[in-house]
Amino acid sequence: MIKSLHKRESELANTKRQLEILSNGIFKNGELPKFKDKISETHLFPLRPKTLEILQINLGYMCNQTCAHCHVDAGPDRKEIMTKETMQQCLSFIKKTNAHTLDLTGGAPEMNPNFRWFVEEVSKEGITDFIVRSNLTIMLANKKYHDLPEFFKKYNIHVISSMPHWTRGKTDKQRGDGVFDKSIQVLKKLNEVGYGMPNSNLKLDLVYNPSGAFLPANQSALEKDFKKALMDDFGIQFHNLFAITNLPISRFLDYLIASENYEDYMYALVEAYNPLAVTNVMCTNTISVGYDGFLYDCDFNQMLNLKVANKVNHISEYEEESLQNRNIVISQHCYGCTAGAGSSCQGNVI
Ligand code: SF4
Ligand code: SF4
User: Fold this and answer.
1) Which one of the ligands is nearest to 245 CA?
2) Average pLDDT over all residues of the chain
């Protein structure tokens, strides 16, 4: 298993170093336009939020996996975990917000010792769409997680899981040896309790992201291919497939640099820039809460430690109105959200 950038003491564990790389070189010498200049061409700068619809909460960076392209730099060696006190601050906000979707993520959010307590408390608040991003293999990692499919069912959790490919080789290359077989085992278990079945209210969606320095293919074509292959080979069903573009940050940035693909990848993102996607990027309807309660425009800005540009920047003092008046913090990684049909945690944005 590979180690996190933090454990390896890589220079990219420093978010300032990542931002320097994204601002210098081809963007400083004018070969490629900075994201701010690109969106200014169609008068979309500054990028501003619309109505808040999604609250995404990161319960910690600990994970049982160390996937090659992880934008969180998560792994078993990361110890950052949301405390119960911060969860209580999140709950106070959830009681007040009009956001219809709550999205719990990590690392592996299930590894937070207060995960079940938090889910139980949140479920009392009548959130319309209550998402947990599960890596699937966590449900086999330890006996204490074996009943998670039933637990998710009890609270009508919408499960969204990464599955980079329908073949063992491509999945294991990105996520680690043995991940494919375990993921299949867990998907079967989720189907058994009712997840992913046609007409079932128990939503099961999969997330595809490319395994190398290229952009995702068409989302609906990929969904058809995934559905056919998983049904034919394993009898597995699921609802939607979200195709996500890898953003050039964290371990994917490390991979791009190490494989000498960084510049070509940035060129590909800029060439695929679609101004229509800019108006729907996820930072326009989402707030991301870090494990320590700080607020970010999105999960990617969180991983670059780019807090919201607002006087209120912590969940403990959250004011929805004040946040609606902020400008969204952007950099060149944002090109990953605006290529082609756009990309977000819910897949294409147009
Ligand atoms: S399962 Fe998700 S959070 Fe964990 S290392 Fe893989 S990509 Fe990162
Ligand atoms: S990376 Fe974040 S801030 Fe930038 S466009 Fe995407 S969602 Fe918005």
Assistant:
1) 2
2) 96
